[in-house]
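Incident log, support desk, overnight shift.

02:14 A customer reports that sequence design results differ from what the structure should imply. Their input is reproduced verbatim below. On-call engineer (initials T.W.) acknowledged and began investigating.
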């Protein structure tokens, strides 16, 4: 019996030094980030922006908490699509009535609103739950280079340097 107590003392781990820190709404550090979409490929840009929105680039990432940054995407009209995606890629929606399935090609959606094309691609890379809806509210996509969040002093990020 005495040997077991001695072994426990020798191999005991200080539990206080090995605590996992989980972020919550009060301890999260949210920043404002500006991303320029000019010359970027749509899918690659969207996946990097989704990582920024989700907060997966931060060391205190917690899956069930909104710990990502507020992202502003400018120059949405200057994105690129590779291959034949401008004509072949379709976006499907349904009106809710019988026979109400409607489709748009990427060119048609881009003609209506380039920012909606970028928003759809980023939203598809976020979780499909309440957290994903909350994360999507942290995104602002603008067609030109002017945006209405200058007061937040967003930090410009080059997506080519983000992994």
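02:41 Re-run completed on a clean worker. Output:
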């Amino acid at each position: 019996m005495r040997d077991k107590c001695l072994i426990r003392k020798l191999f005991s781990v200080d539990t206080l030094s090995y605590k996992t820190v989980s972020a919550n709404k009060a301890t999260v550090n949210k920043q404002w980030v500006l991303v320029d979409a000019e010359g970027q490929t749509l899918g690659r840009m969207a996946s990097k922006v989704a990582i920024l929105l989700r907060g997966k680039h931060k060391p205190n990432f917690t899956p069930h908490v909104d710990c990502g940054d507020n992202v502003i995407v400018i120059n949405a009209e200057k994105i690129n699509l590779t291959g034949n995606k401008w004509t072949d890629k379709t976006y499907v929606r349904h009106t809710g009535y019988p026979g109400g399935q409607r489709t748009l090609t990427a060119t048609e959606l881009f003609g209506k609103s380039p920012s909606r094309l970028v928003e759809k691609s980023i939203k598809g890379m976020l979780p499909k739950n309440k957290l994903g809806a909350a994360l999507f509210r942290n995104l602002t996509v603008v067609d030109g280079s002017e945006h209405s969040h200058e007061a937040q002093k967003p930090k410009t990020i080059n997506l080519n340097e983000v992994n």
